[in-house]
Task: inverse folding
């Protein structure tokens, strides 16, 4: 992941500079570290599920492990949080504000940020009651494997999940391809092509939630950041998965709403 690599490189460069400033070394090692320019060629495509696709997934008939994987994934789609944050949720975290609004209040595991997430979708309560508020504890690898299989099945009834897109592949996938353990379809320009359902992971769930709320044009960025837990607008913007067409549609709809309703001439 180019974005993650650049983040770690930047942090390492800072540590090396501070160590040199404190007299711990006299080398310029940080100059040998460099960030990779992020562009469409080396970035893994970030996608999200639409509200319609999420509802179809919720209504899908499943059982056993796949049923639990789907339910945990759905919580991310509805609450906009990471899988790790559901492991510690209890009934006590589901509260009502003084103004009577239902929310989930907890501290995010990765960032240690305290968040209060409004429960916009009633399906959250249906899932919580299904497990008596003891949500399944599933490893990321398990979810990532089975959610792709589940959505591949769902794509028979939801054609949008079968759409193909250009994307980059991970270093692990590149190595597997080099060793002949994996094969990826490429277009005439050599770009890897994948179906949308193949590109789904645990990260897709919270991105779907925040992106759908953003595209609804009902909430400000600061309001959505209070849900996602992002501290900077730059980091938040990287979380949004809007295409240029979706952005254009949103701007056009805002413009239509702001047009005067009366003709003065």
Result:
């Amino acid at each position: 992941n180019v974005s993650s690599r650049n983040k770690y490189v930047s942090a390492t460069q800072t540590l090396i500079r501070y160590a040199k400033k404190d007299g711990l070394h006299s080398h310029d090692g940080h100059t040998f570290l460099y960030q990779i320019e992020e562009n469409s060629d080396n970035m893994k495509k970030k996608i999200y599920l639409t509200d319609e696709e999420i509802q179809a997934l919720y209504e899908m008939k499943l059982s056993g492990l796949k049923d639990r994987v789907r339910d945990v994934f759905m919580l991310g789609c509805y609450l906009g949080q990471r899988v790790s944050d559901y492991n510690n949720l209890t009934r006590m975290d589901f509260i009502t504000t003084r103004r009577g609004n239902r929310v989930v209040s907890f501290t995010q595991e990765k960032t240690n940020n305290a968040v209060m997430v409004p429960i916009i979708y009633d399906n959250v309560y249906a899932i919580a009651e299904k497990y008596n508020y003891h949500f399944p504890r599933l490893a990321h690898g398990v979810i990532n494997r089975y959610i792709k299989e589940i959505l591949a099945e769902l794509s028979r009834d939801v054609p949008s999940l079968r759409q193909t897109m250009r994307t980059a592949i991970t270093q692990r996938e590149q190595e597997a391809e080099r060793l002949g353990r994996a094969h990826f379809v490429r277009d005439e320009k050599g770009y890897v092509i994948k179906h949308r359902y193949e590109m789904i992971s645990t990260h897709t769930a919270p991105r779907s939630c925040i992106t759908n709320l953003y595209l609804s044009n009902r909430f400000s960025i600061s309001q959505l950041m209070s849900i996602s837990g992002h501290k900077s607008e730059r980091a938040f913007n990287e979380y949004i998965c809007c295409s240029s067409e979706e952005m254009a549609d949103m701007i056009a709809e805002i413009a239509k709403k702001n047009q005067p309703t009366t003709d003065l001439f």
User: Anything to note?
Assistant: The two ends are 57 Å apart (CA to CA). The beta strands are 94-96, 102-107, 114-118, 164-167, 192-195. The longest strand covers residues 102-107. The chain has a mean pLDDT of 84.
